[in-house]
Amino acid sequence: MNLPHTMKFEFTTATRILFGTGRLNEIGGLAKSLGKRALVITGRNPQRAERFLGLLTQQGVATAVFRVVGEPEIDTVLAGIEHAKQNTCDMVISVGGGSVIDAGKAIAGMLNNEGELLDYLEIIGKGKPMERVSAPFIAIPTTAGTGSEVTRNSVLASRQHKVKVSLRSPFLLPSVALVDPELTYDLPQPITASTGLDALTQLIEPYVSCRSNPLTDAISLDGLRRAARSLQIAYEQGSNAPAARQDMAMASLCGGLALANAGLGAVHGFAGPIGGMFPAPHGAVCAALLSPVIRINLKALRERQPGNPAVDRYENVARLLTNEPNAKADATIEWIENLVRDFQIPQLRAYGIRPEDIDDLVSKAGNSSSMKANPIVLTLVELRKVLESAL
Ligand SMILES: [Zn+2]
């Protein structure tokens, strides 16, 4: 048997990953080992961080708090850098959802790199590579979805340009990703739904991606198994389902590990430009696009590349999600559509997207970096069809 021997990949992640219920209690000692004064970034609800701040001061770590409400804009990051400098912070800790963690990555990165934030941004800036490792950064997710604690990009919105752009660098990977499922117990239902569906998307897209590798495959499959058995339970039982919450925290982490090393696909190719132009929650946008993308990908693969391994991979996904050993690839579509209906995820027109926006979104999505990892190159007609059926 002639096995191919040309496998080539890189796998990069946070320096340390600490996972487990109750591990937030370790934050004081961890922070102390990395610095003296922490910029603590929180979300909408800073009271939730009070116990957290106590754990830091007990260990003699001084804190300055910075709030990030909603998705971070370039100005948010600039204000955060200023606040960190004024308070002579030597490390950054983010406790919150993907937005809070993304803001923390950018602030920690810019504390140690010369020049302006815009110099380092893709598309609207100079896209200059970062030269120095970030200030020590601890990422603590409080949602189960984005996996941002183990990815190397920070998504920032530019209000002026009406786009979302990434700051990208291996230096942005957190020093510590601390994943404590207990922090997700009291997430409200709509957030459990949208972030959970983002996690599911971020497990399926890297698994069928043309850049997948054996490590990301193993991780995607483990995450998919967990999301399949636990997403609905976490949604329905909320704070009474610690095992399901643990599964979803792990599924989200797996999604982050997989996407950072294997890329994503057409769902995220669209979600980027949509998020830049319309005020829509990322996870819900991904959820609305997921089954239309799988339907078009499968059709295109069967018509043009029937031997492409992604077809079998979609079948594996179907078997994991439905728990039916003989399920066919298309069963994935139905499973997702049922879940999206149960979770009351609206079609995209609910966010103000109209048919006349399709051309613009298709051309932006076609050029996005996520689109390049889609298992097959989709035509403009196919991309239109995806958006039309998600509207
Ligand atoms: Zn996502």
The secondary-structure class comes to alpha/beta
Proportion in helices: 40-55%
**Bound ligands, named by name, code or SMILES:** zinc ion
Find the count of extended strands (DSSP E, 2+ residues): 8
C-alpha termini separation: 48 Å
Average pLDDT value? 94
Radius of gyration from the alpha-carbon trace, in angstroms: 20 Å
How large is the share of residues in beta strands? 5-15%
- Helices and strands, in order, run as EHEHEHEHHEEEEHHHHHHHHH
Number of helices: 14
With strands numbered from the N-terminus, the spatial order across the biggest sheet is 1-8-5-4-2-3
Describe the structure.
The protein is an alpha/beta fold. The chain has helices at residues 27-32, 50-58, 74-86, 98-112, 117-120, 189-208, 214-237, 242-262, 266-277, 282-304, 310-322, 331-342, 358-366, 380-390; strands spanning 16-19, 37-42, 62-67, 91-96, 137-141, 153-158, 163-168, 176-179. The strands form two sheets. Strands 1-8-5-4-2-3 form a six-stranded parallel β-sheet, with helices on both faces. Strand 2 (37-42), helix 2 (50-58) and strand 3 (62-67) form a beta-alpha-beta unit. It binds zinc ion. Zinc ion (ZN) binds next to helix 6 and helix 10.
Short account of what is shown:
The chain is an alpha/beta fold and 391 residues long. The protein has helices at residues 27-32, 50-58, 74-86, 98-112, 117-120, 189-208, 214-237, 242-262, 266-277, 282-304, 310-322, 331-342, 358-366, 380-390, and strands spanning 16-19, 37-42, 62-67, 91-96, 137-141, 153-158, 163-168, 176-179.
